[in-house]
């Protein structure tokens, strides 16, 4: 399969120029190793995969001999399988002034991140990779983050065809796992079944010590009912036949594995009566569609859950965008005890960009009325709008626009 250029490449190379070690984490099979091997092409960089049992045993039993055998600069795949290496990586980093000595990949876990940060503080940059975005699938990985002025949106839209609901739901249905590109629907279903059994269940046992794999599988499926909704741990626990604390812990495990994302609610000292429950989203809509047992793109698009899938898709595209961006962006949502809501609030440099998500092509303008709720926050409110199925950007008022979902 032809290599698809990744948005994370720019940020990885920028960090590699100043850090001695750079680690790319993320869910299994999202393309971490493929990207780093591509970037290493033509370099004299050693490659080791710790899925190999002999190399793994050497790394665990004698890290010093491991690095005598495999000298930096080095790319180590699945580094979470031998955390014993981190102390030696620290020593080697301290002995050299060179940057980019160690390229590491690891399937995301809380334990891995803690060990890497504790052992390599100040020496390592940790980046997160997701499955393919719609921009990457279209060959538009260079576009970067979005601007919300009408002019910026219009300029960005020149890089994309007019918005089309068939194309959008084809992307939602297929998801972004690189291994599924070009597969038939039947092949993709088998891929996701194998993905769950081969990777998720194995990692649940090996990396997280979960012995009740059947209960964990039920909790995973139960999470699909809350995609785009406030998470309800009691309902998830009931579906998985486990206790509420166990359900809560397992959702955190799924989050640490890069399978689900919990969006935190907006908080502000000036605003009272805000809820504190997060909303749940799947990081890959193809996996969500498979777990929800939708049998085709059309049944998904016309089904009762299509709006929640649409919202999940928009949020997951922003997740990808801001994992690679030059500036830090905080993404939250607003909901208060009066059921007033704003789907997304993007906070950058003290400015709030409020966004509504609607599947319609011409949603009612009053959807932006809820943005006034933020006026009491004492923070500046910037441009925003309604992300929807409009074909092209269109102004709503002086600050807000209709935003085609396929340009984010």
Mean pLDDT: 93
Low-confidence stretches are: none
Percent of sequence in beta strands: 15-25%
Alpha-carbon Rg, integer:
22 Å
* β-strand number: 15
Query: What is the terminal separation in angstroms?
Result: 26 Å
Helical coverage, percent range: 25-40%
Category by helix and strand content? alpha/beta
Largest sheet, described in full? Answer: 7 strands, mixed
Contiguous helical run count: 16
Categorize the overall geometry. globular
Characterise the protein shown here.
The chain has 408 residues and is α/β, with parallel strands linked by helices. The protein folds into two domains: 8-129, Rossmann fold (3-Layer(aba) Sandwich); 134-407, no CATH class. It has 16 helices and 15 strands. Strands 9, 10, 11, 12, 13, 14 and 15 form a seven-stranded mixed beta sheet that branches. A hairpin with a 5-residue loop joins strand 9 and strand 10 (341-348). Helix 3 (53-61) crosses helix 4, helix 9 packs across helix 14 and helix 11 packs across helix 12 (233-240). The protein is globular and about 65 Å long. The mean pLDDT is 93.
Features:
15 strands, 39% helix, globular, 5-stranded parallel sheet, 16 helices, Rossmann fold, 17% strand, alpha/beta, 408 residues
Record the SSE blueprint.
Layout: H1 8-16, E1 21-26, H2 32-40, E2 46-49, H3 53-61, H4 63-69, E3 74-77, H5 85-94, E4 102-107, H6 110-119, E5 124-129, H7 134-137, H8 150-157, H9 165-174, H10 185-206, H11 213-223, E6 229-230, H12 233-240, H13 244-256, E7 260-263, E8 279-282, H14 285-291, H15 297-302, H16 306-323, E9 330-335, E10 341-348, E11 351-357, E12 380-381, E13 384-388, E14 394-395, E15 400-404
Parallel strand pairs: 1-4, 1-5, 2-3, 3-4, 11-12, 11-13, 13-15
Antiparallel strand pairs: 6-8, 7-8, 9-10, 10-11, 14-15
Helix pairs in contact: 3-4, 9-14, 11-12, 11-13, 12-13
């Amino acid at each position: 399969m032809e290599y698809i250029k990744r948005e994370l490449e720019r940020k990885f190379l920028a960090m590699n120029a100043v850090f001695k070690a750079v680690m790319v984490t993320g869910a299994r099979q999202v393309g971490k190793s493929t990207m780093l091997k591509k970037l290493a092409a033509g370099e004299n960089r050693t490659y080791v995969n710790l899925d190999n049992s002999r190399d793994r045993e050497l790394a665990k039993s004698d890290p010093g001999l491991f690095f005598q055998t495999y000298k930096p600069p080095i790319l180590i795949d699945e580094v979470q399988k031998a955390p014993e290496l981190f102390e030696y990586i620290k020593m080697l980093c301290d002995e050299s002034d060179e940057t980019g000595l160690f390229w590491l990949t690891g399937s995301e876990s809380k334990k891995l991140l803690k060990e890497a940060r504790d052992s390599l503080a100040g020496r390592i940059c940790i980046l997160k990779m997701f499955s393919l975005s719609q921009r990457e699938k279209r060959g538009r990985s260079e576009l970067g983050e979005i601007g919300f002025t009408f002019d910026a949106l219009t300029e960005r839209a020149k890089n994309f065809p007019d918005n089309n609901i068939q194309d959008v739901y084809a992307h939602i249905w297929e998801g972004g796992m690189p291994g599924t590109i070009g597969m038939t629907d039947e092949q993709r279903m088998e891929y996701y079944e194998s993905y769950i059994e081969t990777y998720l269940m194995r990692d649940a046992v090996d990396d997280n010590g979960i012995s009740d794999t059947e209960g964990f599988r039920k909790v995973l499926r139960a999470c699909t009912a809350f995609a785009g909704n406030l998470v309800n741990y009691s309902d998830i626990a009931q579906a998985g036949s486990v206790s509420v604390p166990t359900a809560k812990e397992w959702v955190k495990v799924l989050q640490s594995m890069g399978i689900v994302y919990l969006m935190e609610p907006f908080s502000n000292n000036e605003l009272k009566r805000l809820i504190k429950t997060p909303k749940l989203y799947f990081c890959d809509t193809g996996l969500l569609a498979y777990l929800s047992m939708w049998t085709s793109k059309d049944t998904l698009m016309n089904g009762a859950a299509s709006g929640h899938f649409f919202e999940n898709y928009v949020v997951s595209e922003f997740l990808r965008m801001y994992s690679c961006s030059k500036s830090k962006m905080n993404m939250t949502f607003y909901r208060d005890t009066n059921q007033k809501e704003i789907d997304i609030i993007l906070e950058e440099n003290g400015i709030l960009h409020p966004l509504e998500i609607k599947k319609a092509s011409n949603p009612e303008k009053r959807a932006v009325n809820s943005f006034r709720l933020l006026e009491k926050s004492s923070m500046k409110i910037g441009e925003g709008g309604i992300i929807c199925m409009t074909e092209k950007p269109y102004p709503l008022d002086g600050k807000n626009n209709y935003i085609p979902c396929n340009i984010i």
